[in-house]
Design a protein that fits this description.
Elements: H1 2-12, E1 31-35, E2 38-41, E3 46-49, H2 52-55, H3 64-76, H4 88-97, E4 106-110, H5 113-130, E5 138-142, H6 151-156, H7 160-163, E6 173-176, E7 181-182, H8 195-206, E8 212-217, E9 221-222, E10 228-230, H9 233-244, E11 248-252, E12 276-279, E13 291-295, H10 297-301, H11 323-338, H12 341-363, E14 366-372, E15 375-380, H13 395-406, E16 408-409, E17 416-419, H14 427-443
Parallel strand pairs: 3-16, 5-6, 5-8, 8-11, 11-12
Antiparallel strand pairs: 1-2, 2-3, 4-13, 7-10, 9-10, 12-13, 14-15, 15-17
Length: 444
């Protein structure tokens, strides 16, 4: 049965973020069902989802409470236009979202992370227009960052593998250099940033300040850029600079939000409140495509007035406030609160790091281990030389193939291996994952 499904799939379906020719030697698995940390195939295989299905399954697959909440919502209605309507589920979700980050008490919904990024950037630009800051029309972002796949989101990012073919239609973002990378909270440099490094960054920013509308960033962890972790001190300094220069700070919490780093929002590590926060992925625990942009009342008030003034933010989205997604998100937040998920992630974060430390000790094939919360990553190296493999060897891809045979879905970022399991993964499952990675690395 599995081979028939694969044959039809590859005849018609163009898979995301893939070179389709790779599927000739590494065909997709045929998933029949998913429960907790595992995917179950039509051929009876049980495969651990060690990356939470692109980082969104924060509470695992088929969580019974979320399933019940979604079914209740479907019995009432599945979707209605959110312009000029309201409902109990969305109202309660909005209240809860606006309570997770004091100071951000308004929420605008969209369909996915890229849309949230574009909305936040558009809001910043229109804010300055409404406030008659006519010169503030430019944006900045971090080097090595990633913010999504639509054109403005690609422009904000700095991962050429995704954006290079589209440069002719991309807009210019200044890229902030001098990111103080660390290995995690145990790193002596966790709470520091070299003054000389900041001075160079500040000098770069000072040249832009008169025209700069906003700076967008991934707080503390840069995801698709290689799961790189940096010191919160950068965000503290950046928050002070942006306030002094009337520049908005946009936190892209799409990957880092909802407990992934041990805090509800990763900005909490720096003790800062951004002007806008973009949320998605863990928002619905992977049950529906949904995103949100949070802002504060002073920011919101710049758009408030008589219609004739032309101040309204007229961005529209058919599935804005999608009811099924809202029901899943609301129940997810209740589970987070009742089961103290963030506290558990903070407490158990050492378990995630220990997996890769054990692999490195057993195989000598990993270096540059970094971790925060339920995120851990390392780079594959040749154990005989300690150096990276040549790119054409595709060591990460080969590891992925081997790991799948051994029972774990560990799609890498180039030759960077990372693990982002569901936040409620039992310890025994993590022990199993450790054994699979060690076995796979030895085979590689």
């Amino acid at each position: 049965m599995g081979s028939e499904i694969i044959s039809k799939d590859l005849k018609y379906f163009w898979h995301p973020c893939s070179q389709m020719k790779d599927y000739e030697i590494f065909p997709p698995i045929t998933v029949e069902k998913a429960r907790g940390s595992y995917l179950y195939t039509t051929d009876g295989e049980k495969i651990m989802d060690a990356i939470s299905s692109w980082w969104c399954k924060s509470l695992g697959h088929s969580h019974p409470r979320i399933k019940k909440a979604v079914k209740r919502q479907i019995d009432n209605f599945e979707h209605i236009i959110s312009a000029n309507t309201c409902n109990r589920t969305l109202s309660e979700l909005s209240e809860r979202l606006c309570n997770i980050c004091p100071g951000l008490d308004k929420v605008f919904y969209a369909d996915n992370g890229s849309a949230a990024v574009e909305i936040a950037l558009k809001m910043s630009l229109q804010y300055h227009k409404n406030m008659r800051n006519q010169r503030k029309t430019k944006f900045a972002s971090f080097k090595n960052g990633y913010h999504g796949e639509t054109i403005l989101a690609l422009s904000a990012g700095d991962c050429g593998i995704y954006s290079e073919p589209f440069r002719p239609i991309m807009t210019e973002f200044a890229k902030i250099a001098g990111i103080p990378y660390v290995s995690g909270k145990g790193d002596p440099k966790w709470n520091s940033m070299p003054e000389l490094m900041w001075k160079k960054t500040e000098k770069q920013l000072d040249k832009l300040k008169d025209k700069l509308s906003a700076i967008i960033f991934e707080p503390i962890v840069q995801g698709a850029g290689g799961m790189k972790i940096y010191s919160p001190e950068l965000l503290k300094k950046l928050r002070k600079w942006t306030i002094e220069n009337n520049v908005h700070l946009i936190a892209d919490e799409i990957m880092t939000g909802f407990g992934r780093t041990g805090k509800m929002l990763a900005c909490e590590h720096a003790g800062i409140t951004p002007d806008l926060a973009c949320l998605s992925k863990g928002l619905t625990a992977g049950w529906a495509p949904m995103s949100a942009v949070l802002c504060g009342t002073p920011f919101y008030n710049a758009f408030y007035g008589d219609y004739s003034e032309g101040r309204a933010f007229l961005h529209s989205s058919t599935y804005c406030g999608y009811a099924i997604g809202a029901a899943a998100a609301l129940e997810t937040l209740k589970i987070f609160e009742e089961e103290k998920i963030c506290e558990q992630v903070e407490k158990r974060s050492c378990e995630i790091r220990r997996i890769l430390e054990n692999v490195a000790a057993e195989t000598g094939a990993l270096r540059n281990i970094r971790s925060l919360g339920f995120i851990a990553a390392a780079d594959i190296v040749d154990p005989h030389t300690g150096k990276p493999f040549e790119k054409d060897k595709r060591a990460g891809f080969e590891f992925f193939r081997i790991a799948m045979k051994n029972g774990a879905f560990l799609r890498p970022l180039g030759d960077t291996v990372y693990i982002l399991p569901p936040l409620n993964t039992p310890p025994k499952v993590l022990d199993e994952l450790s054994n699979i990675i060690i076995k796979s690395m030895k085979s590689l």
